[in-house]
Amino acid sequence: MTKLGKLFYVLCFLIIVYIAFGFKVVPIVLKDQLIKNLDENLTQKTDIGKIEFNPLTLKIIIHDFKIFDSNDLTTISFKEFSVDFSLLRSIKQQNIRFKDITLKDAFVNVIQDKDGNLNLSNLLNPSLNEETQEEEKSSSNIEFLVSKITLDNANIQYSKEGEIPYSLDLKNINYTLYDLGTYKNSLSSNDLKLKLNEYTNISIGGAFKLQPLKAYGKVLVEDLRIKELLTYKKDLLNFDLDEKANLNLELNYNLDTTTNFDLKLNTNKFEINNLNLTQNKTALLNLEKLDIKTFAFDLQNQDINFDNIDFNNLKANMILNKEGINFAKLIKQTNTKEEPKTENLTTKEEIESKPWNVNLSNVRLNNNDFIFTDKINNNSTQSKNFNINFNNLKIVNSDIDLDTLVVNNPNFNFNDNKNDLFISSKNTNINLDKLSLKNNILDINKIDISKDNLNFNDKKSNFNLNTKKIDVLVKNLKIVDTKTSIEDITLKTPNLNFDDIKSKIKLESSNINLNVNSFLLDKEDISIKDIKLIKPSINMKDKTNNIELSAKDIQLHINNIVNKKDDLSINSIKLFEPKLDFLNTSDKTKIVAKNLDLEIKKLSNGKNGFKIDKTNLNKPDVSIILAKKENQIENEDNIKLDSKEVETVKKEDNKSSKTKLDIGPVNIKNGIFSFEDKNLPIPFKTTVTKLNGKISEFKNKKSSTTNLEVKGVVDEYGVAKITGVVHPNNIKLLTDINMIFSNIAIQNFTPYSGKFVGREIKSGKLDLDLKYNIEKSNLEAKNNIVISKLELGEKIESPDAVSLPLDIAIALLRDSNGIIDINLPVSGNVDDPQFAIGSIIWKAFVNLMTKAVTAPFSLLGSMFNFSEDEIKSVRFDPLEDEVGPIQKETLDKIVQILKARSEIAIELSPSYDETKDGYAQQKQNYLARKDDDRNLKKEEIEALILKEKIKIPNLEKIAQNRIININNYLIKEKGINPKQVILITNKIGNNNSSINLNVTKPK
Predict the structure, then answer these.
(1) Cα dihedral 808, 810, 811, 813 in deg (nearest 10)
(2) What does the buried/exposed string (b/e) look like for 626-652 if buried means 16 or more CB atoms within 10 Å of the residue's CB?
(3) What is the dihedral of CA 595, 599, 605, 610, to 10 degrees?
(4) Where are the transmembrane segments (predicted)?
(5) Among residues 250, 543, 700, 873, which one has the fewest Cβ atoms lying within 10 Å of its Cβ?
(6) Nearest to 331 by CA among 382, 274, 284
(7) Pair 244, 224: CB distance under 8 Å
């Protein structure tokens, strides 16, 4: 046998020995040594079913491996573990290469005891946990490659012992990894699938490189039950979560560490469903679905982007009680040791680090409910079915940008049962456009708020407010530090109702359009460029004070308002009111104002007092209408102040005003004033046009005075002028007013003449010169009344009319030119509760008229400088009937009066004195017959005279002769108009020898 043959046989023998040793001996040795070493180094026992080794392919398989404790409880096990080494390729390519590494049916049982210790952490013997010197790292860099790694049907079971046991199972774990290693920097692909507990499926697929580390792939999570994870810390949770709450995730990842740690994440699906939280069997939070359709995370660029986020049917129930708010108690508080404070040292790199960019687009909260119940104060707040949408929210550090925000709230209710206060609104819409928060500067382009209905009901105060379709528009809102500015604010509502049941005040308004321009709030300072109220209509009813007020199409413009601390200034106020109606429902008095054009210039109020530079009232048209009363009772007391009211006025007047007043002139231009009194037998109406006037400055200084001057045209041809000076603080200190009315057509006053004197006025003119002077509450008034061409008309039935023969009174008062000139002085103290100027003047006028009728000769005597006794009768001696010097003295004065007063007549009634004239007749008869008895004593003669018979016809004849002779003297000798002398012949008086004169109308 040659050497080559021997070598061949030796080699074959060695191969046979190697194969036999490898197939038979090595597995036995490996099994024994592996069990021995594991038992020595582990605290638990090890069992291996068998080991297979193929010395030709260098493939090793371990079967039925198991690590178990003393209770025969398996900790780690697997059915098969195989390693297939690629020897030839390793030699050829000079690297370590494995063809396949497979682990089948692996099982890991992780147990955490009550102290928090894991069984796996105690698996090694304590001796192996001692510190050892760290071996020097090999400088060699051996490349390796594993073609395939397979984890087949692995299971991991985790259980936690304690009062609340917890378990987690990772089942059916299947993992395949291709080309793992450093050789040629191969791209490794991997695929992981597993099942978490009963419902959750997780899969991870992708690829990665080790040098430099690169990875990409996709993570899929299906039906991850959130409660199964949270139960791990259930002892810290103070709420219950619905078992159906789950998470679905489809996440793509990309990692590249070539230059930097570049991590990118994005999702195709991110869902949380059926998130229902309860606490003590009370629902706290319900979320049907959170759907984030797009999520992108870029670590290198520090970008986080969310797009198309939907919160569907989010329901929150917040409760406040003595223990606090329920949401604050979701996590149980634990006692934690306070960590020592460390200095916050930031490096320059940290300060200059690139900020994170967070972008949220198309975020929608749909069909949400919010309930807040305050059990302490017994109130609740509910907002149901509201939606919130916002788009393009960008967050960079503390900077925020938002394109749009839309809030739709169809229903909001606030119920304060403790205070009986209830607020509700429907269909609230909030639209926000372009919000920016940069460098602590908030800038909002536009906020639009609208409500279909708002109700405010305060039952305790009997107060109710409701409105429909409120629209509020805010433009360019900006907040910088302590400054808040708004370019424009607009408030519109077609209907606003206010009802104060307690005060019996009801307010209804419509078409409110309020605009505020250039608003600025700087700390406590406020400035506004313009405020405009455009054409609203307001109706107000005050049943307590019997007032109704209505205004239509109001226009109010306030310009340049500045309020700094306690100082307020306004450049101008303009008010235009086309129509304002005021009604006193108790007496039906109505005031109607049209075309009010009011302008106030430069108003200020501050430490220096209240000041207005100038006030203009242009073309006002004001009407006062006194309605007819059903049961009117005129009483002088009605025009007197109640004593209590006077005392109140006194107290108010005596109070010195703390605020200085400086009100500039008030100008009235081209005004119209109308007065109508329907509370008369014939309605009365008069109008003052072309009303112009000026009231000088008004200052509440002790030495200041206010001048006034007003002029106008009364009806068609009359003129009115009022001038004077008043003390601005108290008119009782100083008032000097002169009111002149000229050429007033008094036929318009027929309604008043009919009511108070029972006659119409056909024609006539009236001039008034009224002077009122008050100094230290003492009034001195002069009322000069001149009436010309007065002619009365028909009688008017009126229960309030004075029963006087007015024709006679007028005739007595009127001079030869047909003019009545009356002077009615009035004096008194205005502090007297019984003092009322109107009542005093009316009494003086009535007394004058009464005196003219009841004592005409007293009035005539005062006019002609005669005494009443000189002209009221013509004196005759007994049996005298001829007009002699004594009678002529009286009659000549009567002649003077009759010629001056052609509208009056003298009425003569025959009269004799039965006693005096009768005795004279007896004596005359006795003396004519008994001349021889004259020597008798006086007493005897007197007795004889009285026995004479009185002849009454003779006395009546004398009485008749007296008035006939007076008539002849006046008419024939003095030329008096016969119509002015009236003889009464059908009645003869018997108690006076003198002829008493009566004033009457001519025949």
Answers:
(1) 120
(2) beeeeeeeeeeeeebbeeeebeeeeee
(3) -90
(4) 7-30
(5) 543
(6) 284
(7) no
User: Does the pLDDT of residue 655 top 60, yes or no?
Assistant: no
Predicted confidence at residue 136, as pLDDT, reads 45
What Cα–Cα distance (Å) separates residue 169 from each residue in 21, 83, 227, 241, 248?
42, 27, 14, 20, 18
> How is residue 415 written in tokens?
């119920």
pTM: 0.67
pLDDT tens per residue, range 388-445: 888 888 888 778 888 898 888 778 888 888 888 888 888 888 888 998 988 888 899 9
What's the length of the chain? 1003
Please name which of 782, 583, 608, 749 lies closest in space to residue 680, comparing C-alpha atoms.
749
Task: Please give the DSSP secondary-structure letter assigned to residue 387.
Answer: E
Long-range Cβ contacts of 944-949 (<8 Å, 24+ apart): 945/919, 946/919, 946/922, 948/921, 948/922, 948/923, 949/922, 949/925
| Gap between the Cα atoms of 365 and 311, Å rounded | 5
Q: Backbone phi, then psi, for 26, in 5-degree steps?
A: -60, -45
How large is the C-alpha radius of gyration of the chain?
A: 60
The sign of the dihedral angle between the CA atoms of 358, 360, 366, 372 is positive
Contact, 14 vs 26, CB < 8 A? no
Q: What is the pLDDT of residue 40?
A: 86
Q: For 681-713, how does the pLDDT look when each residue is reduced to its tens digit (9 = 90+)?
A: 556 567 888 888 888 777 777 667 777 788 888
Each residue of 246-283: pLDDT tens digit? 999 999 999 988 888 889 999 888 999 998 888 888 88
